[in-house]
């Protein structure tokens, strides 16, 4: 399974949606349950966040490759989780 990183901010409404979509996707699709996501709160781990190339949150990386940045929809989250299984 490929590693997934999620950069987010606690107060970001798009990030809260992304987190909800992750929960919903895992609940609806049991095969996605094992996908582990390293959660990186940008303001609390700024040194780590600064080593990655992105501007907007939420930002997802799968296997070290940026796959999504900014506002997100439920189907995009599911696609990201599935890509970690490939």
From TrEMBL:
InterPro entries assigned: GLR_AS, Thioredoxin-like_fold, Thioredoxin-like_sf
A Pfam family matched in the record: Thioredoxin_3
The family database entries (CDD domains) matched by this protein are listed as: TRX_superfamily
Output this protein's name. Thioredoxin
Q: Which residues form the Thioredoxin-like fold domain?
A: 9-81
Write out the coiled-coil annotation as residue ranges. none
Give the originating organism: Alistipes finegoldii
Q: Which superkingdom, per the lineage?
A: Bacteria
């Amino acid at each position: 399974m490929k590693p997934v990183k999620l950069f987010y901010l606690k107060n970001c409404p798009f990030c809260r949606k992304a987190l909800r979509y992750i929960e919903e996707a895992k609940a609806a699709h049991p095969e996605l349950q094992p996908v582990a996501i390293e959660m990186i709160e940008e303001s609390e781990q700024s040194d780590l966040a600064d080593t990655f190339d992105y501007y907007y949150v939420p930002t997802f990386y799968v296997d070290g490759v940026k796959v999504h940045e900014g506002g997100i929809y439920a189907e995009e989250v599911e696609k990201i989780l599935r890509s970690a299984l490939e």
